[in-house]
Amino acid sequence: MNTATKQLEKKQKKKHKNQHEKKHEKKTIINFLLVDEDIEWMEDFHSKFDIQKEEVIKGKKIGLSLLKLNTDPNISITEDGIIKNPGEACLSLLQSDLGIYCQGVLLDWELQSKLEKKELIRAIKKLRPELPIYILTQYCNGYEIVEGVSDLIDDYFSKLTAEADMKGMIHRLISHFNTRRKSPFWEAYRDYIVDSKDAWHTPGHFSGRSFMISDYINDFYYFFGKNTFAGDLSISVDNLGSLLDGTGHIKEAQRKAAHTFGAKHTFFVTNGSSTSNKIIIQTLLRKGDEVLVDRNCHKSVHYGIIQNGAVPVYLESEYDKELGIFAPPRFEDIQREIESGRHQFKLLILTGCTYDGILSDIRSIVSLAHQHEIKVFIDEAWFAYAGFHPAYNRFSAVYAGADYVTHSSHKVLSSFSQASMIHVNDPAFDEDFFREIFYIYTSTSPQYQMIASLDVASTQMLMEGFRLVQQARHYADQFRTKVKESLDYFRLVEEEGFRQAFPHLENEKVGYDPLKVLIDFSKTGMSRDEILGEIKSKAMLEIEKSTHSTFLVLFTIGTSDQKAVRLFKVLKEIESKPHKTPRPLNHSLVDIPSEIKLTDGLTPSEVFYGKRKRVSIEDAVSKVSAGLVVPYPPGIPLLVPAQEITQAHIDYLKSLVKKEVEVHGLFDSRELYVKL
Is the whole-model pTM more than 0.85? Predict the structure, then answer.
């Protein structure tokens, strides 16, 4: 191929790429918040900015604007045009709807604020960690500023230079914005697919051709489309990098994700947080090591402990049989176990946010554990957005200093199913050993679309996480308000309801996630199947989780107001129907035993891998469970290996079978495995 032909082909590929991007382009709104106490100066600076920006963004799909501090109508201003308490006003605006599109703060270094400069900058970072901070100064030299806050600021501008060369400053701001918005792996992956290279490597369908030419399964190809199959690549594509070794563009994407989520290291996992949890447990624990674990942890945690032969001590937690939900463990129980001196714990494992939205005081727990040289691992599967909204920041496990945190990115972020992240802050992190465990659990042929979805999910949260979470909270608040105002037979379980169910929460520094809407339908007199059947048939909506008296609705960053309205419409219709007499509060409800106590001298691992036999649930009383018995969802074990089976367990299992609840570890709805 001659040089001219090569250049023509390259030009055509570039044109194709540009057309593809243009087709999916959307106007990007970028606001920078200007923080100064002098309104006259801000107005003048703003006018110059507005005039000069037009030349910079001409032809680009960008909506660029400078948001002045005095935009907020609630701020106090003196008679001579000076803003009182500009630091506090800045923090207030960044939490409001006015600040949702903010992509950076232009902060006057000479600001006269009650909050000292470093204190204000740290407060901004604590409130909105993802926001860049750019310093404007009238007098100070850059060296002095950088000496003081280099790790907290992103750039520095002299006011005089900025006003004289406004376009130069705008170009620099937009350039930094464009760098931040990049998704390193996704962009390289997309470009590779667009190039349409011939593949002489796996997978064997060769970009979907084997599907496309088939007389029997070509509908599969046309349903999913060309790019789905072209993007199903092999690890043989070296330039994209290796997930196993963390190289190339995958390495870049993981580094960016670590910065975005506030961790020292982040790893992408393509088999869900069930695998992420096991990777961490296998990395940190050895056979015989003692681990303090929440009995309500997901079954993957319990399986991880079984696999490596660790010795668990289970934290008891309360169960409310009226609602069918668990509370997180008490802080005093965690403290008592750690300080008792009976155990040499290597690790503490907790769930950071319960399925139903109760948030534990992770900071206090991490502090306590670290004082006793115990590592902390938090399963934060349902709370991956914790670090992106001021209402949640203090409950974020990453920001609380937990050593290891897992996020089920696919559950609440913009990622494909099975996409998960492991975040590491452990100062003694053994990355070499971690990677060997990672090799054990990770396929040598990972799904590239899943990796790309983790990359773009990270970028999205960095660039618009606050706005999206704020919007989801707004939709959830609207829905909650309408339910309380208009419905009598459906009761929202909120803070007060949780405290009534679990009185000990009154004295704990817990929080509640309003995006997890728990609805008690017991007053309708309808069964769970009747309620869910009505919702499914009339609104074509699927419910996340349900019990005999409640169902859970998840509001996420992908929730639309119309979906919430549809659900409300169905509930309103159910309200208008004649109702049965509400069931008595104790309508044959069975308490679930909240304590997991192992049989003396036995560990889950040795019983699980030992000799076992299958027996009917009626014959299992007083025997030792040899398997994990788990109602699903939410995947919290009723029985673990080495636990003695009581009549209370059997009564509860029978009640689940009667209600046709899925129970993992129960076979043919009537048998389970016990130690021989």
Answer: yes
